[in-house]
Write a structure and sequence with these properties.
The protein folds into three domains: 2-252, Deoxyribonuclease I, Chain A (4-Layer Sandwich), CATH 3.60.10; 259-314, no CATH class; 320-346. The radius of gyration is 24 Å and the shape is globular. It has helices spanning 18-26, 63-66, 131-148, 185-196, 269-277, 281-286, 290-308, 325-343; strands spanning 2-10, 32-36, 54-59, 74-79, 83-86, 95-105, 113-121, 125-126, 129-130, 153-159, 166-169, 177-180, 200-201, 214-218, 223-226, 241-249, 251-252, 259-262, 311-314. It starts with a strand and ends with a helix. By secondary structure, it is of the alpha+beta class. β1 (2-10), α1 and β2 form a beta-alpha-beta unit. It has eight helices and 19 strands. This is Endonuclease/exonuclease/phosphatase domain-containing protein.
Length: 346
């Protein structure tokens, strides 16, 4: 049995936090990472945010259309050994992103566990659509998705920005939360829709102002805990960091693809230098523009690496490849003390 862990946070922009975010991602072992308000541009690459353990799916805001410079954007990063299918046709005109995550059951007599995972960010206005229009469009899409997949599991997480709704523990044993104080048309619409789709809300963690803006909706039991004490980026007062656990899953992930490890310490550098010296670099570069020069240089260097430096295939690990055993031990010690602090806070 194992828990599947989903980390969620409204980041309030990642453009200026890429180094800190990447460093903290490398020190984590979450199965899935979900971020709202990424504020990302095309010029920010996935590899600046995540190491090779994750496949990244993004829906960046179109700033050329909105005439704004920041705000919005969502992403989901999933471990490479999970089978993931992006469901672009499920995306609505709101800022949402849908994936189908298939987990293979260790019991061969059972089907794989399909989870439709969605992240949503609702704001006052986007692309000429009001908050009400975004909410209505998303709920229409959600209704169609759930009805079309009646036997599937769903987890919808995101910033719904409906702060007046109060969420109190339900009387059921699933540790979900019941809404109250929902009186506006948007609030009533949301509550009516999630009830009609048999979804429950599992986040009861309040922000700095005693409100709950980030909701976790699901038709399966999930456990949501506050992770604001050790977030991937600094916490915003309106939003905490959450970890969503799907408990007791008997799954087997896909076999990770082997990694090609180049053995630079065993390379024939005399042969490499000899071949490099035969290239007339001045003549080659004078007939090319800058991008062509860079491509020519790397093509030759990579060809020589393949020719004169041996390699071996190794399996992927839970941590980035450059993490040493002492560093992994320190990370595990940090997690142990953090768990102890949460159980016995001073």
């Amino acid at each position: 049995m194992m828990d599947i862990s989903i980390y969620y946070q409204n980041a309030r922009g990642l453009r200026t936090k890429t180094t800190e975010f990447y460093r903290n991602v490398c020190a984590s072992t979450f199965d899935v990472i979900v971020i709202t308000e990424t504020w990302l541009l095309d010029s920010v690459f996935d590899t600046e945010l995540f190491d090779a353990r994750y496949v990244v799916f993004r829906r960046d805001r179109d700033y050329s259309a909105t005439k704004l410079t920041r705000g919005g954007g969502v992403l989901i990063a999933v471990r490479r050994d999970f089978k993931v299918i992006p469901k672009v046709n499920y995306n609505s005109t709101a800022e949402d992103l849908w994936l189908l995550v298939s987990l293979f059951n260790k019991n061969k007599n059972k089907n794989c566990l399909d989870i439709y995972l969605c992240v949503l960010y609702l704001c006052k206005e986007n692309l000429g659509l009001s908050f009400s229009q975004q909410l209505q469009n998303f709920l229409t899409s959600l209704n169609n998705v759930v009805i079309s997949n009646p036997l599937s599991r769903f987890i919808i997480v995101g910033d719904f920005n409906l702060s007046n709704i109060k969420w109190t523990p339900s009387s059921t044993s699933d540790k979900s939360f019941e809404p109250s104080n929902h009186s506006s048309p948007n609030e009533i619409l949301l509550i009516d829709e999630i009830r009609s789709l048999n979804l429950r809300q599992y986040n009861g963690n309040h922000n700095h102002f005693g409100k709950i803006l980030d909701l976790v909706l699901s038709n399966i039991i999930v456990h949501v805990t506050d992770f604001s004490g050790d977030p991937l980026v600094p916490i915003d007062k309106h939003h905490g960091a959450l970890v969503i656990n799907i408990p007791n899953q008997q799954i087997s992930s896909l076999s990770p693809a082997p990694r090609r490890k180049i053995l630079f310490n065993r390379g024939d550098y005399s042969a490499i230098n000899r071949e490099l010296s035969t290239i007339d670099w001045v003549a080659e570069f004078s007939s090319r523009n800058l991008e062509e020069c860079i491509s020519f240089f790397y093509d030759n260097v990579n060809a020589l690496i393949d020719k004169y430096i041996p390699y071996k295939m190794t399996s992927c690990t839970a941590y980035p490849v450059w993490y040493t055993a002492p560093l992994k031990k320190l990370i595990n010690e940090k997690r142990k003390h953090l768990r102890k602090f949460k159980i016995e806070p001073k």
